[in-house]
Amino acid sequence: MATNGLTKLRLLITLGVIGLFGIITFALAAVTLGTLNKRLDAVDGKLLAIAAGSLTTLSTVITMTPSQNLSLVTSIDVIDVLKHLHELQSIADRANGTRAINTRGFNETLQYIKYTLSRKTNFTVIEDSFPVRDFALNSDPVFISSVNGTIKIYTFSLDLTKADFLYAKYSTGSNITDIGYVSVIPNGGCNETDWQNVISGRIALIKKEGDCSSRQRISHATKYNASGILFYNNGRSSEDLAPIKIILSQDNILPVLFLSHKVGQDLVDAILNQSSNVTVQLGIDVKSLPAFPVGNICAYTSSGNATQTILIGSHADSVPEGPGINDNGIRLK
Ligand SMILES: *[C@@H]1O[C@H](CO)[C@@H](O)[C@H](O)[C@H]1NC(C)=O
Ligand SMILES: *[C@@H]1O[C@H](CO)[C@@H](O)[C@H](O)[C@H]1NC(C)=O
Ligand SMILES: *[C@@H]1O[C@H](CO)[C@@H](O)[C@H](O)[C@H]1NC(C)=O
Ligand SMILES: *[C@@H]1O[C@H](CO)[C@@H](O)[C@H](O)[C@H]1NC(C)=O
Ligand SMILES: *[C@@H]1O[C@H](CO)[C@@H](O)[C@H](O)[C@H]1NC(C)=O
Ligand SMILES: *[C@@H]1O[C@H](CO)[C@@H](O)[C@H](O)[C@H]1NC(C)=O
Ligand SMILES: *[C@@H]1O[C@H](CO)[C@@H](O)[C@H](O)[C@H]1NC(C)=O
Ligand SMILES: *[C@@H]1O[C@H](CO)[C@@H](O)[C@H](O)[C@H]1NC(C)=O
Ligand SMILES: *[C@@H]1O[C@H](CO)[C@@H](O)[C@H](O)[C@H]1NC(C)=O
Ligand SMILES: *[C@@H]1O[C@H](CO)[C@@H](O)[C@H](O)[C@H]1NC(C)=O
Ligand SMILES: *[C@@H]1O[C@H](CO)[C@@H](O)[C@H](O)[C@H]1NC(C)=O
């Protein structure tokens, strides 16, 4: 821990449910760490391996040219990674096959990480807990359009080959009897200038394009008083036709659906035809569920400049369907 780089920098590692809330942030040396992260992805064990004791090396690597020095990557032994994976598997085996949040398997995972970090590193390790609101619907959502009085009722299905639309997790409810007019937002709605012509109280129709997160688009929609959001896929390739499952931030205050490319594009075409009367109705019946606590483990270097902190994050939770993680590093666009 004696390199020049380290004395200047502070490191914070968090292991928890960061994915729920969007992106992993690299405060400094983003390019370097980005490369590093890609490399680590190849070793399907990710930060656990680092957490278990390779951090001295990480501090060194960030001062180097990324493409030249792979010493951190080679310092991670697959055997070591597998040891942690086996531990996580045992935890899941004892806990009904999963380590998802709000299960015993998740709590035990946190204890394992905390114990390992405390014992094998010199980090200051803390566990942090916060409430997460659960989300479920009482019934399948409904989406209806009317063009000059011709009504279309679309298909909701979790089978993406059949689905015309999906709901977004943490959407708010919407009454099917409410009739909404729609504003087409250009360029994916990333830039505030795209929202200048939105009429307050209309539902924003947004194609999945442009370089920003759903969170950013939704914050524009909220600011410009949209009454809801219809995202639709961009149709650039055969992979981009079906609706997409998205998760919003828990403080979202709008009803949000995600439409297939065809449904979205047909609506855009109808709306851009000025003389047509286009309306939509969204039926989203949200269940009211209690919040539950979720833990994060944070590990800090005790030295370093707090204003130059590098933050590295990773999931600790598994999917509900099994013991593993399948969405590390995803950033919703
Ligand atoms: C790569 O980093 C290691 C320390 O982690 C250092 O010993 C080695 O000299 C570096 N190699 C190059 C080519 O910079
Ligand atoms: C274990 O999983 C099964 C099937 O998913 C479920 O029915 C059961 O309630 C779970 N038990 C516990 C203790 O979570
Ligand atoms: C997990 O731990 C939290 C406190 O840290 C506790 O409130 C919660 O009941 C635990 N959940 C399970 C499923 O054991
Ligand atoms: C933790 O700090 C002690 C005392 O400075 C040092 O001997 C030890 O090698 C450090 N351990 C790790 C894993 O860095
Ligand atoms: C939806 O709106 C109708 C008419 O305003 C009302 O009668 C009904 O109770 C509302 N349904 C819900 C679930 O709020
Ligand atoms: C937003 O659009 C304006 C005007 O077109 C442009 O000047 C600005 O650079 C854009 N900002 C971003 C973040 O794209
Ligand atoms: C949105 O609504 C608020 C409250 O009604 C109003 O103050 C604000 O000017 C509206 N913003 C836009 C962009 O219409
Ligand atoms: C509007 O829609 C009608 C009926 O589909 C079509 O005949 C007409 O050409 C459209 N007008 C424009 C400007 O697209
Ligand atoms: C809707 O009706 C208007 C006339 O009222 C007509 O100009 C327009 O083309 C119609 N749109 C469609 C899609 O049929
Ligand atoms: C447009 O259609 C809606 C129903 O979808 C209807 O309530 C409204 O009166 C229509 N507006 C015009 C101008 O025809
Ligand atoms: C910490 O970093 C800031 C700039 O990011 C610098 O202004 C400050 O002097 C540094 N503090 C120490 C103690 O090095």
From TrEMBL:
UniProt keyword annotation of Protein transport present: no
Name the UniProt record assigns to this protein: PA domain-containing protein
This protein's UniProt keywords: Membrane, Transmembrane, Transmembrane helix
Superkingdom of source: Eukaryota
UniProt signal peptide: none
Transmembrane intervals: 12-35
Gene3D superfamilies per record: 3.50.30.30, Zn peptidases
Species, as recorded: Adineta ricciae (Rotifer)
Pfam families: PA, Peptidase_M28
Record domain PA: where: 184-267
Domain Peptidase M28: 296-330
